[in-house]
Amino acid sequence: MAERTHLRVPNIDRLGLGRVQPGPGLGADPVGAYGRMAEVSAGKDSMTGHWELVGIVTERPFETYPNGFPAEVLSRLEDSIGMPVLGNVVASGTEVLERFGEQAWLSGCPIVYTSADSVFQIAAHTDHTPPDMLYGWCEFLRMLMGDSVARIIARPFTGTPGAFHRIDHGRRDFPVPLPGGSVLELAFHAGVRTVGIGKVRDLFPGHPFDDVTGPGRDEKAMLALAERVREGSPGLTLANVGDLDSKYGHRNDPHGWAVAFHELDDRLRMVLELLGDDDVLIVTGDHGNDPTTPGTDHTREYVPVLACSGAGWRSGGPAQSVGERETFADVAATIAELLDLDPDTIPGTSFAPDVP
After folding, report:
1. Rounded Cα distance, 87 and 250, in Å
2. Which distant-in-sequence residues (6+ apart) come within 8 Å of 351 by Cβ?
3. Are residues 119 and 207 part of one domain?
4. Are 33 and 309 in contact (CB under 8 A)?
5. How far, in Å, CA of 220 to CA of 318, rounded?
6. Is the peptide bond before 205 cis (omega within 30 degrees of 0)?
7. CA 109, 110, 114 angle in degrees (round to 5)?
8. Which among 137, 159, 175 is the end of a domain?
9. Least confident of 1-5, 52-56, 266-270
10. How far is 135 from 111, CA to CA, in rounded Å?
11. How far is residue 112's CA from residue 122's CA, in Å, rounded to a whole number?
């Protein structure tokens, strides 16, 4: 991306991004701990990556459906909703609306589709299917599919031929519950307040967050994170910002990605300046999604891991490379050490001593 676009991300670069991956416009003297992490879980989807970040390594991958869903699954769904389904293809959301949107609008039948990830997506036009009815269909699918598919996703859409569009605030995920043993569970049993921002409830289903904001655009998530830091109350906050992935990575839009990354970096500066001396911010990812490569699905890449305290940000270091980590779960082990939790049950290795 640095070679293809004019990246302007001075704040995340100062955390060490240019030392993790050098490139044009990157390479500021870092102030935090910086390195990169490999994923050991079987998969490269959002849930698998996020679960590994909190200490859950997925050894058996969720099932994917490169040839569409089995006929018996669709037959049971059609019997339940009383109508046939359209599609049953591997495609992006925008593509299925172009291919099947008019037929769905005329017939009232929903569109079923998937991707390279373990997802069962079902889109229905709101003229025929109110969102609450679509959510009920997804609850049935969740029971029907068991834990074989990671997420059932409701995709209500509206509009007329040539102008169909998904209702972003109408999307709802029905995921497999988060297994036990995560650092979130340790925090809960220790009485540590946990706050979720963005799609966190969908990514860590079943965890009893004390407060959740979102989902919404990245700007909303970053403002919510800044307000949480401003409060100064102790605890653990997880903020998911996904526009680089969903709006630009999947759509192979390098220019839009670069502009959005710049905007995200500008709001990151606000968060960094609000950090208390003992606050620690960790910036990382759950998988790759390179908008410059062929295809529209996730890419299995290393992810950066950048961390610093408020004191380290203001003092300018000292910077410390944490090298190449063997698992995303090192983030979970680091959180456990920072919060004085029992890290022995977490599969990763803490880098907390290296955070300035």
Report:
1. 20
2. 33, 35, 305, 307, 322, 325, 330, 334
3. no
4. no
5. 32
6. no
7. 150
8. 175
9. 1-5
10. 14
11. 5
pLDDT of residue 6: 85
Between residues 250 and 304, the one the model is more confident about: 304
Helices vs. strands in the chain: H and E counts, helices first: 13, 13
What are the beta bridge partners of residue 299? 288
pLDDT above 90 for 338: yes
Amino acid at 283: V
In a domain, 208, yes or no: yes
User: Terminal CA-to-CA distance of the chain, rounded, Å?
Assistant: 28
Q: Are residues 258 and 292 in the same domain?
A: yes
Q: What angle do CA 46, 54, 314 make, to 5 degrees?
A: 100
One domain, residues 268 and 291: yes
pTM above 0.90, yes or no: no
Residue 141: give the domain boundaries: 71-175
Any idea which residue has 């490269």 for tokens?
A: 44
What was the pLDDT predicted at 214? 76
Q: Could you say which of 140, 175, 210 is where a domain stops?
A: 175
pLDDT at 293 over 90: no
> In the predicted model, is pLDDT for residue 96 greater than 90?
yes
In a domain, 246, yes or no: yes
Percent of the chain topping pLDDT 70: 100
Residue 31 to residues 146, 268, 356: CA-CA distances in angstroms?
Answer: 46, 15, 8
Predicted local distance difference test score (pLDDT) of residue 12: 96
The C-alpha angle with vertex 23 and arms to 22 and 27, in degrees rounded to 5, equals 60
CA 160 to chain centre: 31
- Encoded amino acid at 173, one letter: D
In this predicted structure, the answer to whether residue 350 has a pLDDT above a threshold of 80 is yes
